[in-house]
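Quarterly update from the structural biology core.
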Amino acid sequence: MELTQRTQAIHADDGLNATSDVAPPLHVSTTFRYADDPKDLVPAADADISTTEAHVYSRHTAPSSTRLEAVLAPLLKAPCLTYASGLAALHAAYVYLNPGRVSIGDGYHGSHGVLDIQKKLCGTRIIPLQCPASDLQPGDVIHLETPLNPTGEAYNIAEYADKAHGRGAILLVDSTFAPPGLQDPFEWGADIVMHSGTKYLGGHSDMLCGVLATNKKQWLTGLREDRIFLGSVMGSMESWLGVRSLRTLDLRVVRQSENASKLVQWLDFCKHTESEDEEAELVNPIVERIQHASLQHEDMPWLKQQMPNGFGPVFAIWTKEETMARRLPSLLTLFHHATSLGGVESLIEWRSMSDRTVDSRVLRVSVGVEDWEDLKADLKRGFKELLRNPKA
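Predicted structure, tokenized:
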């Protein structure tokens, strides 16, 4: 029986159940007994590191992280490995691929930090995302983040897959902002997919996690071997929390994406209305522009295929002045002023607090699962207070 992703999120790990517990137990041991019968002992030189049937040491495999990877694989539509954080996963990818050149554009500043280390250690050249295809050579990497942090802007994965593969290069897609249920990068030609599982895969702002997925068996074996010595494995507690979180992934991300699109549509309507409108009179003196994949109207022919179930829960607001971006978060009640994203609670961040490269008027909005009308009302109250007392 072929199961949907929604059902796989609940049952993909059933084969790992060794007790009668319905909720999977948390295993905290770092080391595990060898077989009692000497005839069953397999020396390290003969061991298959890809097997997870017999755990030896938790830097190799452990019950909780193995279970998490078992649930993730059918959701991501590829075998996968988990890591201590998103950046740990990205670092592992570049250590293994060791490209001569990486073609990358704007996006998460942390990814650029990882590449700075790669450049320092290996001499990797960084070239623009929009470089001519002729600048790419076999083994180079196109690093495509879509949707983009912090704006929520989407890119055409198939277009970049064609560009990479036409030159023998590799397409790495950071799909953190569009988790399973919203986007499948492999369908459009990705060779390897990375997620900061801290965000939507975790979904509760209480765990760090990184994920690499690929259908290339040799790559997976190499990445697994590297992970043993990089030491960047997930802890058992975080892995257990990850399994808990994936059970409700579909319920969360579709709701969050719908909420975000409704808020974006409301703000965009206010920006373009010509009539005297009470809400527009609150929005327009503060909001310069909004960016989100749902506003990429000219891209809808490919975008609706790439993201058929929603355009992601994150968008960006540019305010008219820096002081507005600095002050608005403190005037809101339902949006927590904090970095990160992907949790069930809505967050808003004056992005300058964590990213020194961004326009100082940018607010990143990560929409949660609350009622969107309540979130809208909270923004309206904040706009109203900001206009009432602009110099506070």
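DSSP finds twelve helices and twelve strands in the chain.
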